[in-house]
Amino acid sequence: MGCGKRFDKDDKIDDIFTSDECVCDVVRAIAEAQEDVFDMTCDVSCAKSINNLLAPVSRNNLDTVPFILYGKDLKPFRAFGADIEIRGGRPIFDCTESFIFRVKEVSDDCCAVLELLTFDAMEPDRPGDQDGAKGAMTPCKQLDREDVNDLNRTGVCITVDLKCFCAITCLPAVSVL
Q1: Is pLDDT of 103 > 60?
Q2: Concatenated DSSP letters for 96-145?
Q3: Of the candidates 93, 71, 73, 74, the residue with the CA atom closest to the CA atom of residue 82
Q4: What DSSP string describes 17-49?
């Protein structure tokens, strides 16, 4: 069976295919069957991060759900931007790169303004102070062993078309404001 193809009518599981998206139909059927057997939530997921952000429990001070986007090739998306740093009385560009984002706004046509987040032990974060993902080839290299409290806003924003991405990984909700 290929994409957009259905099993023959004689097939015993034909009733799970409700559309021409065969993979989606099968995964949906598996999910529904699993829910009937045992309901187990993920320890880390977008839904859990959003719920933690909105939870009224003991004023958790969480204000951001950081996330990583994946392109159609399923490779993590790394963004680049620059701010201006004053060095020796002269303004110079300072490049920032990151796999980790905070959404600022989303339009009706799925264009979004995303702010790059980086790790920086200096707080508050200063322009020209971000190393971000420099030298990191994967999001895990940027994240691994970093102090959660060192995740900071950079002030560097990009505009993206969310329809160009195939997957998202949400990190646990944090406070960066």
Answers
A1: yes
A2: EEESEEEEEEE-TTSEEEEEEEEE-SSSS--TT---TTTT-SSHHHHHTT
A3: 93
A4: --SS-HHHHHHHHHHHHHHHH-----SS-HHHH
Q: Could you tell me how far CA 160 lies from the centroid of its own chain?
A: 13
pLDDT tens-place string over residues 137-148: 899 999 988 989
For the purposes of burial, counting CB atoms within 10 Å of the CB of 154, is it exposed (0-12), middle (13-18) or buried (19 or more)? buried
Map residue 167 onto helix, strand or coil: strand
What does the buried/exposed string (b/e) look like for 128-147 if buried means 16 or more CB atoms within 10 Å of the residue's CB?
Answer: bbbbbbeebeebeebbeeee
Alpha-carbon distance 115 to 158, whole Å?
6
Instruction: Give pLDDT tens digits for 27-37.
Output: 677 667 766 66
Q: Please tell me whether the overall predicted TM-score, pTM, comes out greater than 0.85 for this model.
A: no
* 84 strand-pairing partners: 93
